[in-house]
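Nucleobase:cation symporter-2 family protein (Exiguobacterium antarcticum), 435 aa
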Amino acid sequence: MKTLSNVKAASLGLQHVLAMYTGAAIVPLIVGSAIGLSGEELAYLVAIDLFMCGVATLLQVFVTKYTGVGLPVVLGCTFTAVGPMIAIGSLQGITAIYGALIASGLIILVISGLFSRIAVLFPPVVLGSVVTIIGISLIPAAINDIGGGQGAKDFGDLRYLGLAGLTIVLILVFNRYGTVFSKAAAVLIAVLIGTLVAFGMGMIDFSPVAEASWFQMVTPFYFGVPTFNATAILTMTLVGLVSMVESTGVFLTLGEITDKKLTDKDLARGYRAEGAATIIGGIFNSFPYTTYSQNVGLVQLTGVKTRKVIVFAGFFLIVLGFLPKVATFTTLIPKPVLGGAMLVMFGTVAASGIRILSRVNFAKNDNVITVALALGVGLGISMNPAIVASLPEQVRVLTDSPIVAGSLTALALNALFRLTEQKSPSEKSRLAKVE
């Protein structure tokens, strides 16, 4: 195979950055806005997230004795963490988010070598239920932004609805008629166009970009010393486990694309890289990181499977993390534009959960009950958290988070039904013939 020049590798690396930039930038915007960060704090959150995406990517690309799957993968914040982080930040404060990240990252490091055995606890009926709960519980946040933001005096103004509608239509058009690359970057392109239209409507002030400095250093514990809350740690650990299941699928897919047969040790190093990235993310006040599947499509599209391209992508992301002007520009995206993009992206998370559930055999009543109760408990608590407010403190560790409550319901019911499963007469007959 012909050696890839640095110029071409850099251009392909930049393409990978563009494909994942929307997810990398929108996650801190959503979380930061929801927990009431100032514009300056929001800009730092975006910048540190970009920086950590680069660090996490390089941790995964370079193989050491303990970390790195060694595939051309790009890492970014997992969307399954958005809802849980908002809930933790709203109830226990932002420092509890980072305490939970550090603790959950350590747990992931510890169990990484055993995860292939633990993964059986997350069959499609459980994993699909969890992802669906996360996606659906996030949609109200998108609707609030589409209307102009929670508490806006002109909430639901036609200008806001028009901008959100334009953003959604553009995403649909690029997904339907665009090239493979523009499909991967459809949300980013639509958000940029929507922001330009909002600027033409006089809804954006670019003075914060002019006032922002060109360079800033990343700062450990920028938002304060981490605090450790049992409910928050359990929530983020469950998110981490779900992320590991999703990453396994991406690793195996990329292994096939790159003709690399992955061993259990390769997968364990990949899990450890994600755990290490999550710990570092907690220290520098960013997010948990997972492998981005949209970049797998670019590997297939370009046919370039070398890790050199991803090294450049990681380097570009790290550089962006030191440039406050870029991060500040991102924070100027109007809420309706962001809300329109969020509606599509969060809906996609829910749809991913439904897609996973499509692999479930719903002819079995056990599976129907498992999904029904998991969704009922998770979404019920999400809609009315006061229902568990009077429970003892020890029990509320398991019920305060809709994600934890729904996930544990699915895990418990799945385990119960498996343990008490009885073979039908026809199955017993088939087994007798085999014996």
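Residues 6-34 form the longest helix (29 residues). The first strand starts at residue 75 and ends at 77. ok done for today
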